């Protein structure tokens, strides 16, 4: 069983109210092999919402800040915990998540300056999944068993 980003499954849950439909992911969901989740929505954020990026504060702690300067870290952490709980219930050991996302990004995320620049790093949910032994891929680098 896979956990997949809901936006990849065609669910309009992105920050801008759109999706990132991926036919391979949709097929997995329709075949009952994947469960779609949106950690940001699970954490209580609305659709649409102000875009968010991860920053490092002066003490070295990671925070998720929206483009208007509001701290959304708590919602991201809560959403990640709920996504992990779903993964555990369904026995998922692999996730296919949306690249570059502050929740789901894997390997590269935006730099926190809202200028489109990417840096090495993982989103909040990806970090938690990896810490709990879930393999994480993006829509750009997964292969199906």
From TrEMBL:
Identification of the protein by name: DUF523 domain-containing protein
Superkingdom to which the source organism belongs: Bacteria
């Amino acid at each position: 069983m896979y956990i997949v980003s809901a936006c990849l499954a065609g669910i309009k849950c992105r920050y801008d109210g759109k999706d990132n439909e991926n036919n391979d992911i949709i097929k997995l969901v329709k075949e009952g092999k994947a469960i779609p989740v949106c950690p940001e929505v699970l954490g209580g954020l609305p659709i649409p919402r102000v875009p968010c990026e991860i920053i490092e504060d002066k003490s070295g702690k990671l925070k998720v800040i929206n483009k208007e300067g509001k701290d959304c870290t708590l919602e991201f952490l809560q959403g990640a915990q709920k996504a992990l709980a779903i993964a555990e219930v369904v026995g998922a050991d692999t996730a296919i998540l949306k690249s570059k996302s502050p929740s789901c990004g894997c390997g590269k995320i935006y730099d926190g300056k809202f200028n489109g620049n990417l840096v090495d790093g993982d989103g909040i949910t990806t970090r938690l999944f990896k810490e709990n032994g879930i393999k994480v891929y993006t829509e750009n680098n997964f292969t199906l068993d």
